[in-house]
Write a structure and sequence with these properties.
With about 190 residues, the protein is α+β, with helices and mostly antiparallel strands. The chain is built from 4 helices and 6 strands, in the order H-E-E-E-E-H-E-E-H-H. Strand 5 (about 95) and strand 6 (about 100-105) form a beta hairpin.
Amino acid sequence: MSEEFELDTNDLTRRMDGAMGALKTEFASLRTGRASASMLEPVMVEAYGSKTPINQVGTVNVPEPRMVTINVWDKSMVGAVEKAIMNSGLGINPQTNGTIVMLPIPELNQERRTELTRVAAQYAEHARVAIRNLRRDGMDSIKKAKANGLSEDDQKIWEAEVQEMTDSYIKQIDGALENKQSEIMQV
């Protein structure tokens, strides 16, 4: 009478992995006092009538630990790249030499480090909320299956599996946050 219920755990895992990937991307954009090409990933340049990632208007290099350079391919785009960096909130003042935009990375002071740890905590909380929303989606599909004849024992087994996945991802988020915060606070 009742059909065999099978929760798509692969889909749930894929979506939770997506939330973790988004968190890692956001963490990479937080600067830690060391130069990194990934810190420019969220910067969008107004290029040719649309917002374009900075790595699509020039080559991003890290020639030394405290310097990022962008070799802008189109000379007319240099001003737009500078403006995008200044408006990005990274706290970096670009210097231009022809088509090369240089970004000297200043030493972080204690106040800025503390502020960055708070931002990292916000990013982690957004990821936790995303994971909890996915947990809710999984639990909702289990409840629908219960209404369609899923046994109470099977319901408990599936709910326990979804909760275990959720706990695992929340633990990963907490670990990633702890690592990022210690990296930021490292002088």
